[in-house]
Amino acid sequence: MALRSRNKVSPNFNMSSMTDIVFLLLIFFMLTSTLVSPNALKLLLPSSSSKTLAKQTVSVSITKDLDFYINDEKVEFELMEPLLLQKMGNNPDNAIILHVDKTVAIEQAVKVMNIANENKFKLVLATKSK
Question: Which residues of 77-86 are buried (b: 16+ CB within 10 A; e: fewer)?
Fold first, then answer.
């Protein structure tokens, strides 16, 4: 008498669930990578526990070598005010995000703050979260 099992296990491997997972991960990483806006300049920012909600329109950076940058574009300090006036426009919601290396003397940051104050620009000092 030949007894056979009715449940036969198929030796084939189904890849459809694996490809679904791979595509979902691909979509996740593509979406999250567009939300990240890294600062191209390597600055050591001071630490803070507060958070800012200001809309970033213009980024001003001061490196440890006292180089001034507006949106990753190196500028001389004398040309900073006319360039900021041009980039800020007349929108009252525009704000300047000031990135200053923590080794830079505070007087360099105050120079940029004075320009923002004289022209009635909103200014936010960027910090690193604790």
Answer: eeebeebbee
What's the rounded mean pLDDT across residues 7-17? Answer: 75
Alpha carbons 61 and 59: distance in angstroms, whole number: 6
pLDDT reported for residue 120: 84
Rounded to whole angstroms, how far apart are CA atoms 72 and 69?
6
Question: In the structure encoding, which two tokens stand for residue 6, read together?
Answer: 């009715």
Q: 73-75 and 95-100 as β-strands: parallel, antiparallel, unpaired?
A: unpaired
Distance CA 92, CA 24 (A): 41
Structural domains in the chain? 47-129 (3.30.420.270)
Provide the pLDDT confidence category of residue 92 given band limits of 50, 70 and 90.
Answer: low
